[in-house]
Request: fold
Amino acid sequence: MPGPTLESLEKLIGTPRDGSLLRYSLGMEYSKLNQWGKAIEHLRNSLAADPGYSAAWRALGKALEADGRMAEALEAYRSGIAAAEKKGDKQAGKEMAVFARRIEKRLVA
Reply:
């Protein structure tokens, strides 16, 4: 059941405040509820608005992974690593590299 935070965020869709941060926030809220389809949708919208948003790439990879979509999660992490490197966000890049390696090992096994 959506909480007050989620409802208040959803009211902002289509307003001037609709953008990468709003969609990232919605994706994170839906992730907390394990509603992976909606989380993925909002995180992809966040990245459409700002492809360099490394936190959104990380969250998208996590949501895809939780939804069992390993190949897509791996691709999200790889894109996130590239975005993080471009921005100089070394920590985010390192984290996503670890997540990507774990998926690669699972896919090979």
